[in-house]
Design a protein that fits this description.
The chain is of the alpha+beta class and about 525 residues long. Helix content is about 20%, strand content about 30%. It is built from nine helices and 23 strands. Strands 3, 4, 5, 6, 7, 8, 9, 10, 11, 12 and 13 form an eleven-stranded mixed beta sheet that branches. Strands 14-23-17-20-21 form a five-stranded mixed beta sheet, covered by helices on one side. A five-stranded antiparallel beta sheet has the order 15-16-22-18-19. The longest helix has 25 residues. The chain is globular. The two termini are about 35 Å apart.
Length: about 525
């Protein structure tokens, strides 16, 4: 982690974020001279987290800035301007429960092991034909001049949050009829593309007021029709929402099929990661969202359908900066050898796995109809442009053995806002059960330094264990099936590790894989 020092008077100064090398825009904390700040920051932020959440929330809502207070006026303006509006709700997502207990999805699509929320919109305007049913309750159809409008308040301080709409399902009866019903034919006649439609709106790109993106008023318009977008924006302004907080997302008509009859099915996702104060802060915020206390969502459409007026596809943010992590390669190799040597002395033989990228991006997925159809055809898996994705092959943990996951904390090189390593079980269900990330590395530092005590850059790396039973080791992830999946996967299922590097501060999108050192996995078996 970066080290900051100040003069002996311990003055308050701007610090670097514990999640990335970019200056943190919110926190100013004392920094005693000459001491490493990683553990200090982690403890300080944990202590401050819930207090800041409450104080900043009170400040945001206590000065007449509550965006929900303007909703009645907004609905009046929309009605006067010729729009109908129907309110939906927000829903906390639990992909493993959906796959294993409720069985409404055949796979988790490699769910990120971090909190997600979606929206549940009314079905009144959609087709009642059985074959036009929603693949999931949180999917929705849109008429070409319809919009989804969200008003509310952004999350409390955390490493990262984002909002994005995906093209989840496409009507394709000919193709889905050839898929196994337990795999790609699960939602027939719809196939699952799960493809992004542009860049995310995130804590790095959000349009709002104030010096930081946390606990701030925001509006989100997701639409594909220019006239709809402009008139909804005008209604928001007339209702008293400032232009500075209005965020727009384009659903490009060149890529999607609108309509209630055989149209595409959309899925909105809100994601939050590494809150100051820990997971309880996110859990509490999710509950307030579900209760409609800080965010509300509406589907809005003209009472008389507008003519076609498609918005052009959005201009995507370029990924590359040309700056790489290659200077860290010698340290990576030293760490690799130290891990192998250390475990060899303990009687274990090493098998190194390949880490590879190459998950297809959203637009090529739509163009080529790369739908999910099980382990041999996984498609884009909800790939977002705010991250890079690298994964291992599927592997087994041998009897009495374990795996070691190691690599760079990509936030330490400023190539990511934060990075993570997650373990998945079962080739079809792909249940993501545990993750470690830049927040974990800040709280439990020194895992690589233990192998390379005299290497200056070792503090930028992490080393973690994966085992069937961790026996209380805090630097270990347990590869045990979730209880809700009992009987649906073996007691000792195959394991896969996925690595993500989120939102390079310089570009505000995921870094290209070519500029990263790939994280790695070594499987150790008793000799």
């Amino acid at each position: 982690m970066p080290t900051d020092t100040v003069s002996t008077d311990s003055r308050l100064t701007r610090t670097e974020s514990p999640f990335c090398g970019a200056p943190n825009r919110l926190f100013r904390i004392p920094q005693p001279q000459g001491k490493r700040m990683g553990r200090f920051r982690a403890l300080a932020y944990a202590a401050l987290g819930l207090t800041l959440f409450l104080l900043l929330s009170h400040r945001a809502f206590g000065q007449g800035n509550d965006p929900l207070a303007k909703v009645p006026k907004l609905l009046q303006v929309l009605d006067r301007d010729g729009f109908d509006a129907k309110e939906g709700t927000f829903r906390i997502l639990d992909p493993i429960k959906y796959a294993c207990e409720e069985k409404i999805i055949p796979t988790t699509y490699y769910n990120n092991v971090q909190p997600y929320m979606s929206v549940n919109l009314p079905t009144d305007w959609e087709s009642t034909a059985p074959e036009m049913r929603r693949a999931l309750p949180i999917n929705y159809f849109l008429r070409q001049d319809e919009a989804v409008v969200i008003v509310g308040t952004t999350p409390p301080p955390m490493a990262y949050f984002s909002y994005q709409t995906f093209l989840f399902g496409r009507y394709n009866p000919e193709k889905t009829s050839t898929y196994p019903k337990t795999l790609g034919g699960y939602f027939a006649p719809y196939e699952v593309l799960f493809a992004y439609l542009g860049d995310q709106v995130s804590s790095l790109t959000l349009a709002s007021t104030g010096s930081n993106p946390y606990n701030r008023p925001m509006v989100y318009i997701s639409a594909g029709n220019r006239q709809t977008q402009e008139r909804v924006r005008a209604a928001l302004l007339a209702a008293g929402y400032p232009a500075a907080i209005i965020n727009t997302e384009t659903l490009p008509a060149s890529m999607v099929r609108f309509g209630y009859d055989k149209g595409d099915q959309f899925l909105f996702l809100m994601r939050m990661a590494i809150a100051v104060g820990g997971s309880d802060v996110i859990n509490e915020f999710e509950k307030t969202i579900e209760a409609g206390q800080v965010m509300r969502v509406f589907r809005v459409r003209p009472k008389v359908e507008f003519p076609l007026d498609p918005l052009p596809a959005p201009v995507l943010r370029p990924r590359s900066t040309g700056h790489t992590e290659i200077d860290m390669y010698p340290t990576m190799e030293k760490l690799r050898q130290a891990i192998i040597d250390s475990n060899s002395k303990l009687g274990y033989a090493a098998q190194e796995l390949d880490s590879t990228g190459g998950i297809p991006e959203g637009y090529p997925t739509i163009e080529q109809e790369l739908a999910w159809n099980g382990p041999t055809q996984e498609g884009t898996l909800g790939y977002g442009r705010d991250a890079s994705y690298v994964g291992t092959e599927w592997f087994n943990l041998p009897e009495g053995g374990f795996a070691i996951v190691y690599g760079l904390d990509h936030s330490a090189t400023q190539k990511a806002t934060y990075s993570s390593a997650s373990i998945y079980l079962d080739q079809i269900i792909t249940a993501g059960i545990q993750t470690v990330d830049s927040g974990t590395f800040a709280k439990l530092p020194g895992t690589a330094t233990a192998y390379l005590p005299s290497e200056p850059d070792a503090s930028k790396f992490y080393v973690w264990k994966v085992a069937r039973n961790c026996n209380g080791d805090p630097h270990c992830m347990e590869a045990k099936p979730p209880s809700v999946c009992t009987g649906l996967m073996s007691a000792e299922p195959l394991v896969r590790v996925f690595f993500r590097a989120y939102a390079e501060p310089a570009t505000q999108v995921g870094p290209p894989e070519s500029e990263l050192l790939y994280d790695r996995v070594i499987v150790f078996s008793p000799k």
